[in-house]
Amino acid sequence: MQMKMKLTVLAAMAAAFGAVSAQEVVRIGHVGPSSGAIAHLGKDNENGARLAIEELNAKGVKIGGKAVKFELIAEDDGADPKQATAAAQKLVDSKVNGVIGHLNSGTTIPASKIYSDAGIPQISPSSTNPKYTRQGYKTAFRVVADDVHLGGTLGRYAVNQLKGKTVAVIDDRTAYGQGVANEFEKAVKAAGATIVGREFTSDKATDFMAILTTLKSKKPDVVFFGGMDSVGGPMLKQMKSLGINAKFMGGDGICTAELPKLAGDAMADGQVVCAEAGGVEGAQKKSADDFNARFQKRFNDDVKLYAPYVYDSVNVMVDAMVRAGSAQPAKYLPELAKTQGFAGVMGPISFDEKGDIKNGALTLYTYKGGKRDAIAVIR
User: Fold this and answer.
1) CA-to-CA distance for 154 and 215, rounded, in angstroms?
2) In which family does this protein belong, per the annotation (predicted)?
C-alpha cells in the first residue's frame, strides 16, 4: 500500500513536471539605463515592462494553442552607445524573442543594427530621433511621435503662444538632444523669430555658467534645452543665479515628474514648457489612469515618464505573436508590421511602413506647484 502511494505521488510529480516543461518560455528583452544620471527613467521603463509581463502571465496567454510563460530579460545600457551595443549583443546571444528599448535615441540607433542583423523585432517606447526608423531596418518600431513632430510643435509654440522673438538653443550633443533641438530651431526660424545663440553641453555636465553667461548678454525670451532632466534641473538653477528670467523649454527628456526636484526653487510656476511624445485625452484618459494606479500599487512609486509606453510596447509585441501563432521572430515580425488599431493604455497603436506610430500624439505641459500641468494634446 505504501509503495503504491509512493508511485502515485511520483506519477503526479512527473505529470506536473511534464506540464511545466511543455510550457513554452518566451523571453522578452528590455534595455534602458538602470545606472547613471537618468537611472530613474530607466527603472521606470523596466517596471513598465515588468508589470506587462506579470499581467500577461496571470492571464495565461496561449500562442499557437500552447500555454506560454513570459520572462523579462533586463539589461542596463547606462545611456551609453557602446554599452548599448554590448547589451544588444548579449540579448541576441541569449536568443530573446523580442526587445523593448532602448530609452535614448543615442543608444537605440546603434543597437538597432544588431537586432536587425539577428532578425529580432525591436520596439522603442521613447526614442524620438527620426533616423531610428529611417535606416531601412524591418525590425525597428516605435510607439511615440518623432522629433520632427516634437521639436516642430515646441518651436511654433515658442513663437506663436509664448510670443518669443529672441530664442536661444542649447543641446547636450546626444542623438536625442541635438535632434530635437535642430527641429525646434527650424520651426522657430520658420515662424519668424530670431535664434540669438546656439550652445552645447554634454549629458553628464554640471556646470553651465559659461554658456549661460554668453546667452544672458543676448537677452533671449526663450531658452530651449535639448537633453534630459538630470541636466535640465541644474541648468535652471544656474539660470536663476544669473538672473535669466526667460521661459525654459524642452522635449520629453526634461518633461518628467522629477524636474521640479532637480531644479529646486529655481523653477517658477509656468516658466517651463515641455512636451511628451505621447498623451491621452477624452475616454482614453481612464485607461491611462487605471494603468497609473496599478503601477503605483505594484511598485509603490509613481510613473516617471515612459512606463506606460513600455507597457504598451510589450503588449503590442505579444499581440503580434498571438496573431501569428508563434513567438519566433521571423514568424511574428510580419504580423507586428501589420498592426493597426491595437488598444494600448496610451491610445491606439498602428504602424506605418517605416515602423513609426501613425497619428502619434504629443502633450504640452507646464509646471505649477511642483507638478506637471497639461496644456494641450496635439496630433
Assistant:
1) 20
2) Belongs to the leucine-binding protein family.
